[in-house]
Amino acid sequence: MAGSEIGLLSGLASTRAIRRYRDEPVPDDALAQMLFAATRAPSGSNRQPFRFMVLTDGPNALAAKQLIGTTARRFWSEKRAADGYDDGSGASQGSPKARMAAAMEQYVANIELVPVLILPCLLRYRAPHSFEGASIYPACQNLLLAARALGFGGVLTGFHAAVEAELRTLLALPANAVIMATITVGRPVGRHGPVRRLPLSDLVFADTWGTAPAWAVDPPGTLHTGAGPPRRH
């Protein structure tokens, strides 16, 4: 893989969800490196049941982007209302929640223009079960980390779900190939940086639910999030 000065732990802590992209293509050699990293991921019994439909600017790609863009705007409009993104601190321009809503609004409004849209597909070889995602989502995370290392960025969504039947026909997917996500990739407008999450002590317990171990302490300078809908423990 092309050299990168980003250490593994640094990359893990700074790979943001990138939703704004420059108007430039992703070079083929960069895509090859990202997808190589994706295909190195673990999977159940090492079956490697993942396949990736990579859509850039061909006729099927443009049609698929249009399908996903339409459903993405509808999905976000419903989620914005249901999750109260415009309530409370969301009514204050510049608040974390308001910034998140603005980023999503811009993202879905321009999703047809993303340089690369990737549909990770699972080759289902047995009846659907709750753990099957473990054989494809690590590959998706590898792809996003590789994109970050190469100076690109992306985000994983489920926008395909409402139009999966149309996508299957358009892209001639076999019967056992199930679309498991929608990933967009491009050169970021803006930059990666430290991600904001809940404190480690809110998320890691020992012996008893809700009791954090003494070592569950964030590194100095860690930033925490105030965005998103209300959270339930």
Topology of this structure?
Layout (H helix, E strand, L loop, with lengths): L7 H7 L13 H12 L10 E6 L3 H24 L13 H14 L6 E8 L13 H13 L3 E5 L6 H8 L5 E3 L2 E5 L13 H4 L30
Antiparallel strand pairs: 1-2, 2-4, 2-5, 3-5
Q: Any overview of this molecule?
A:
- The structure is a single chain.
- The protein is of the alpha+beta class.
- It folds into 2 domains: 8-193, NADH Oxidase (3-Layer(aba) Sandwich); 196-224, no CATH class.
- It has helices spanning 8-14, 28-39, 59-82, 96-109, 137-149, 164-171, 200-203, and strands at 50-55, 116-123, 153-157, 177-179, 182-186.
- Strands 1, 2, 3, 4 and 5 form a 5-stranded antiparallel sheet that branches.
- The model has no long low-confidence stretch (mean pLDDT 92).
Integer tally of domains: 2
Main β-sheet description: 5 strands, antiparallel
Proportion of strand residues: 5-15%
Unreliable runs, pLDDT <50, ≥5 residues? none
State the CATH class of the largest domain: Alpha Beta
Number of helices: 7
Structural class: alpha+beta
Can you identify the CATH superfamily of the largest domain? NADH Oxidase
Provide the CATH topology of the largest domain: NADH Oxidase
Task: Write the H/E string, N to C.
Answer: HHEHHEHEHEEH
Specify Rg, calculated over alpha carbons.
Answer: 19 Å
